[in-house]
Amino acid sequence: MLRPSIAPGTEEGSFAIKGDITFATVGSLLDKGTAQFEPHSHIVVDLSGVTDADSAGLALLIEWVTWANHSVREMVYENVPERLLNIAAISEVEGLLGAGERWSGFL
């Protein structure tokens, strides 16, 4: 298991997640991510560094989409791992993780 990290990217409001986003790790990322996203109105999260993911990782990403919508922010996920896209498709929520999808306003 690779402990996850979230770090600012090179652009304003951009972030990169590295490591596993699984049942064992998402609890630590939820509040860390939300706190780092808070000052930004446009947020881009690069998931290319994710090494393992499960349905809890999907739930985390959906929770951040919900937070962004309720706080009127724009959320974009880039480089979503194939495993997460497959779990999202099975769960019929793949539209929430569309590559480069922008979420603003209320769901």
SSE blueprint and pairings:
Blueprint: E1 5-8, E2 14-21, H1 26-37, E3 42-53, H2 55-70, E4 74-78, H3 82-90
Parallel strand pairs: 2-3, 3-4
Antiparallel strand pairs: 1-2
Helix pairs in contact: 1-2
Compact overview of the structure:
The chain is globular, with a radius of gyration of 12 Å. α1 (about 25-35) runs parallel beside α2 (about 55-70). The chain has a four-stranded mixed sheet, covered by helices on one side.
Percentage of residues in DSSP E strands: 25-35%
Q: What's the count of strands?
A: 4
**CATH homologous superfamily?**
STAS domain
By CATH, the architecture is named: 2-Layer Sandwich
Return the average pLDDT rounded to an integer. Answer: 88
Number of domains: 1
Report the span from N to C terminus. 34 Å
Give the class from helix and strand content and strand pairing. Answer: alpha/beta
Q: How would you characterize the overall build of this protein?
A:
The chain is an alpha/beta fold and 107 residues long. The protein has one domain: STAS domain (Transcription Regulator spoIIAA, 2-Layer Sandwich), CATH 3.30.750. Helix content is 35%, strand content 27%. It is built from three helices and four strands; from the N terminus they run ββαβαβα. The protein has helices spanning 26-37, 55-70, 82-90, and strands at residues 5-8, 14-21, 42-53, 74-78. A four-stranded mixed β-sheet has the order 1-2-3-4, with helices on one face. The protein starts with a strand and ends in a 17-residue tail after the last helix.
